[in-house]
Amino acid sequence: MILVIGGAGYVGSHLVKELVETEEVVVLDNLSTGFKSLVDSKATFIQGDLGDKEVLNNIFTTYSIKAVMHFAANSLVGESVTNPYKYYENNVSATLTLLKAMVDHHVKNFIFSSTAATYGIPHINLIDENQPTNPINPYGKTKLMVEHILEDFSSAYGLNYIVLRYFNVAGAHESATIGERHDPETHLIPIILQHLLGKREKISVFGTDYDTPDGTCIRDYIHATDLANAHILALNALLQEQKQTETYNLGNGNGFSVKEVIKTCEEVTGRKANVQYADRRLGDPSKLVASSKKIQKELGWEPQFNLTNIIEDAWKWHKQSKL
Ligand code: UDP
Predict the structure, then answer these.
(1) Could you read off the pLDDT of 283-301 as tens digits, one per residue?
(2) 317, pLDDT greater than 70
(3) Looking at the structure, do residues 181 and 110 belong to the same domain, yes or no?
(4) Which residues contact 243 (CB under 8 A, 6 or more apart)?
C-alpha cells in the first residue's frame, strides 16, 4: 500500500490516477486546496491533516504502508511572501510531524515534491541539481528546509527518499477527467485559458522589464502526466532498492516567456487575448529552466509532451470545467 498525501490536489491526483494501475493506494488530504472529485475511485480516501499525529498513527497501524508520497503543500510564491507563517507551519512543521510518524512506524521510503524555487536566482541557462540552492521567497525556503531535514533523517534513522524539484507543472490528463483546479487561480496557463473562455476580462502580465529577450519571465512547463510518470519511476527505484537518497529536477529543458505562452494559447484555441501589462509580482525570478538529464539518465524518464500538447490538454479540461 502506498500513502499519497495531497492526492486530491492537482499534481497528486495525476499521480494517483497512474499509480492505482499497479499499486493499492490510500490518499490523505484535508481538502483545503484539493477536491475529492479529482481522486480516482480505486484509491481509498481519508480526509485529514498531515500534521495530525492521531490520523497518521491510525493510517500507519491500519495499513501496511511501503512508501509515502507527499504532495500536500502550499505552493504560491506571492502568498508565501505575504503570509509566511502559513508556509512554515504547513510545509515545514506539519511535514516534520509526518516524517516523525514514519520513523516511529518504520516506514522507510519517501518521495518529496520540491521545487525549482529552491534555486533562487540561477546564474546559468539550464539548471542542474548541482547548482547552489539559495531561495528568494518563503515558499522555496520551506521546501529546501524539508530537503535538509530529509538528509538528516536519512543519516540518523535510515529514511530513504527521492526529492523531485518541479519546474512549472501544467496541462491535464488526456481524458480531461482531471486537471488543474485552484481556487483562487493564480497560475499562468489556467488564467489565460479561463480568459479565452470568457471567464475573465483580461490577462495581466506581471513585469515586462526582466532581463529576458522580451522582458517577461521565462519558465519551463512540464505536463502533469509526465510528472506523474517520473514519480512512479522514483517510487520503483526506492522500492527496488536501486536508490536511497536522490534529488532530481523535473522540467522539459525548454524555456517560454509569459508572452510566448500567451501566443501559444491563442494558437491552440484560435482566440485572441486581451493582455494588460502590470507590475512585477513579488518573489518571481526572471528565468527558471531545468536540465533533467540526471533523471533521464538514471531512471530512464522521458517527457512526452511539449508546450503545445500541454495547452491542448489544458484547453480540453477547461472547456468542460464547470468552474
Ligand atoms: N504570470 C503572469 N500573469 C498571471 C499569472 C502568472 O504574468 O496572471 C507570470 C508569473 O509572474 C510568472 C509566470 O507567469 O512569471 C508563471 O507563473 P505561475 O504562477 O504560473 O507559476 P510560478 O512560476 O509562480 O510557479
Answers:
(1) 889 999 999 999 999 999 9
(2) yes
(3) no
(4) 160, 162, 234, 237, 298
115 lines ligand 1 (CB under 6 A): no
Name which residue sits closest to atom 19 of ligand 1, judged by CA: 187
| Ligand 1 neighbourhood includes 19 CB (under 6 angstroms) | no
Q: How many CA atoms lie within 13 A of 312 on its CB side?
A: 7
Total structural domains in the chain?
A: 2
Does 217 contact ligand 1 (Cβ within 6 A)?
yes
On whether the CB atoms of residues 207 and 217 are closer than 8 A, the answer is: yes
Cell (9 digits) for 268: 491552440
Can you tell me which atom of ligand 1 is nearest the CA of 76? 24
Is residue 22 scored above 90 in pLDDT? yes
The CA-CA-CA angle for residues 12, 16, 21, to 5°, reads 160
CA of 187 relative to ligand 1 center, distance in Å: 6
294 C-beta closer than 6 A to ligand 1: no
- On average, the pLDDT of the chain sits at 96
Same-domain pairing of 156 and 282:
no
What's the CA gap between 143 and 293, in Å, rounded? Answer: 22
CATH number at residue 204: 3.90.25.10
Residues 36 and 17 in one domain: yes
Look at residue 323 and tell me whether its pLDDT is greater than 70.
no
- 196 CA → ligand 1 middle, Å: 17
| pLDDT score for 322 | 73
199-245 per-position pLDDT tens digit? 999 999 999 999 999 999 999 999 999 999 999 999 999 999 999 99
